[in-house]
Design goal:
Blueprint (H helix, E strand, L loop, with lengths): L4 H13 L3 H6 L1 H14 L1 H8 L4 H27 L8 H12 L3 E5 L8 E5 L7 E6 L19 H19 L4 E6 L10 H7 L8 E5 L11 E3 L4 E10 L14 H15 L8 E8 L10 E10 L2 H22 L2 E10 L2 E3 L1 H13 L20 H5 L2 E4 L11 H7 L2 H23 L1 H26 L11
Parallel strand pairs: 3-4, 3-5, 5-12
Antiparallel strand pairs: 1-2, 2-4, 6-11, 7-9, 7-10, 8-9
Helix pairs in contact: 1-3, 3-15, 4-11, 5-7, 5-14, 7-14, 9-10, 11-14
């Protein structure tokens, strides 16, 4: 059976986007099915239809711009100048929620047991599509002090401008639907991401779509399919317990710090037996209190990363065994304490390509013509596997992520211009989703099919990483 040329061309992109040759080989059948799905969805025609001239839509985008110009850009600048790290964003949450209350939203703070997480529901909403908007606001922890080097300070104002403009339209035109804002703290302190915690607590239940914005060094979008921005992650602490003694007679104790050092050495020795895409990043968070006392407690904190969750499980086992070996070699005990994870998410072309078209329509610059690798609309994976959504990333900085250059751009012309683009594009797509039942149906069909194909992909990878047979000597 021969596939049409268009389908074969579509099949190339996701294959290239998978991060390793092993994944590409394992995914070949799945990618062909994804290509056929894209062909049936006719995404280019869908984009052209939705983004055609539409005064009603453009009026909503203009309202989002007006809110940014008159009130919310200044709010973004203010939050930028008063950074607060994860779970300490009290001032920022108060500013955001006070604004939402003044615009007909009921607010509940402290959802999912997180003191600075909140949900804001539209008082005038009616049964119909529930349009979810994620607001982030935490700052980075820096050696020179906390700072908004990832521009989370603008995500709240951008999302509120778009969501409020659409909410006003729903009420004014009696269009069925509502808007819900989700305040998600501490994104930079994951894993576990607060969004995963909120999702497991059913905070996002009932959302038909979720959108968010994020800083970017170019106007871009992700390819459709499944993946993660930052690899699949296991967050694990290795806690070693020894016995104290005077450092003049260390043989009377057992040194937990030496065990941690052995753990790092063991990992470095094993790297040649790990696939080259593996990333293992660790720090020593506790290593003793005084030079003249043998440390009886030491702790190492690791992020263990790999492009897919299947081989990641093998890497995790190797690192755990390295910790056990370090404890055995030093006469100490080790407690292995996993505290969070991140996994691949799902991305839909029906959302990403429409969002990208609007980013260009409303003035996005430094446009990246080719899509980036597939990834969910937020870093957790878990939410985007259960609820369709998309991210908006217009060019907002010439600096890299987590840099002082990106911080400077947040309050400068580059950042301001990009934030305006994000707000308008987000408002436009939410309008389309609220007013076009056929569009919602296309998004749902792509999401449901891609989610099923993701299951096939994981099953295929289970066969792709055989363990070597190690015989007894």
């Amino acid at each position: 059976m021969f596939l049409p040329v268009a389908v074969l061309l579509l099949a190339v992109r996701p294959l290239v986007a998978q991060e390793t040759a092993t994944e590409r080989a394992a995914a070949s059948d799945v990618v062909q099915k994804m290509a056929a799905l894209q062909q049936s969805l006719a995404v280019p025609a869908l984009v052209a239809k939705l983004t055609a001239p539409n005064p009603a839509r453009d009026a909503i985008a203009a309202r989002a711009k007006e809110l940014m110009d008159t009130e919310l850009m200044a709010m973004a600048d203010d939050i930028t100048r008063h950074p607060e790290v994860g779970f300490k964003e009290e001032r920022t949450v108060r500013i955001l929620t006070d604004y939402l209350k003044a615009h007909d939203f009921d607010v509940k703070v402290g959802v999912a047991g997180l003191s600075t997480a909140f949900v804001a529901t539209y008082r005038k909403g009616t049964p119909g599509p529930n349009l979810g908007v994620i607001l982030e606001y935490d700052a980075l922890r820096g050696t020179k002090g906390d700072f908004h080097g990832d521009q989370h300070s603008a995500q709240g104002p951008v999302g509120m401008a778009a969501g409020i403009a659409v909410a006003e339209f729903l009420t004014r035109t009696k269009t069925p639907g509502t808007v819900t804002f989700y305040g998600t703290p501490a994104e930079e302190m994951m894993p576990p991401p607060s969004k995963t915690v909120m999702h497991e607590a059913h905070v996002f239940d009932g959302a038909d779509i979720i959108v968010r914005s994020h800083s970017s060094m170019g106007t871009e979008r992700a390819a459709h399919g499944f993946g993660s921005c930052c690899l699949n992650i296991e967050g694990v602490k290795y806690i070693f317990s020894g016995a104290p003694a005077h450092q003049m007679t260390p043989w009377e104790g057992r040194d937990a710090l030496t065990a941690v050092i052995h753990l790092f050495e063991n990992i470095d020795a094993m790297r040649r037996n790990m696939r080259p895409e593996t990333r293992i990043q660790g720090i020593i968070t506790e290593g003793g209190k005084a030079p003249n006392v043998v440390p009886d407690r030491a702790v190492a904190d690791f992020y263990i990363r790999y492009p897919d969750q299947v081989y990641l499980a093998q890497v995790r086992e190797m690192v755990d065994n390295a910790a056990r070996a370090a404890a055995l070699a030093t006469g100490t005990q080790v407690k292995i304490e996993p505290y969070g994870s991140m996994r691949d998410g799902i991305a839909e072309a029906t959302l990403n390509e429409v969002a990208f078209a609007y980013l260009k329509k409303y003035g996005g610059t430094k446009v990246q013509a080719e899509p980036a690798k597939p990834q969910g609309f937020e870093e957790t994976g878990s939410v985007s596997r259960d609820i369709p959504g998309t991210g908006f990333s217009a060019y907002t900085s010439s600096g890299g992520y987590h840099t002082y250059e990106m911080l400077a751009d947040a309050t400068g012309p580059i950042g301001h211009a990009g934030f305006l683009v994000d707000a308008q594009a987000m408002a436009a797509l939410l309008y389309d989703f609220a007013t076009h039942a056929d569009y919602r149906a296309s998004v749902k069909r792509e999401f449901d099919t891609t989610k099923a194909l993701f299951g096939e992909y994981i099953a295929a990878l289970q066969k792709a990483y055989p363990l070597p047979v190690v015989k007894a000597p």
